[in-house]
Predict the 3D structure of the following.
Amino acid sequence: MARLLDCRAVAARYFDWAAREIAGMRRKPRLATVLFRPEKNPASLQYRDLIVRDAARVGATVDAHEAGDEESLLALVRRLNADRGTTGLMLFYPLQCALKDEDVMDLVSPLKDVEGLHSTNLGYLLKYKRFLDEARGIKCVVPATAKAVVKTLQAYPDLRIDGAFAVIVNNSMRVGKPLGLMLENLGATVVKGYDKTDRATLEACVRRADLVVTAVPDPAFRLDPSWIKPGAAVVDVSFQGNADPEALKERAAFMTEPGNRVGVMTRAMTFVNLVYCAKNAPLRRASRVPVLG
């Protein structure tokens, strides 16, 4: 019988850490959120409201902004990049507009990028650079969802990453790509599959995997539980669920369950990243790291 990964309990520890860090700061972190066309993005609107609630929990301030067109969106990002009072900046992807998400990600200042999606921050991840300034303890920011998966796994000492064969069923900029880098940095061998991976190849990889992370946003996608190697760990990041949890319980050693998936951990990691952004204020003042956009 699988052991359930308690994402809520692990997230609570990180929320508590963020609250303690923020309580000791002279200037409280200020997070600006930018939501594009909320009337057309109800899921992002709901997520924004959760972020606002979490901010109250840790003692941070949130300024919630909305943009109705692409020009307004870009103007908001430029203004918030320049605003000294704004510690962190968060946009809700996918934007579902004429602008490419990846291009907008690079317009956010890397020193305010609480999502860790700017090319500068992804480059640090690629090089496994952990500190912007180690002497002062100023840490790099990495993508929140990928970090959420890793920190959840690391909360269970019996769950091995180093030496594991990991399969990620997602190749997005927010999940699959950075998560693959993180797991590789921690000693795992990683294979990624996505919508262009034929099912036979995906099955062959999953059957060998010690760790499976699935994050396919298509409700029609289902991961066959019979593919899971007995004793493997399965992390389902998708909103609707990519696999039958009851069937997984009979094969997996560790697994997430509906209602207690990684989403709450992603939000916790967002506030961990906000703390890191608040602590890099000396670098912003000195302009030691280039701010693009």
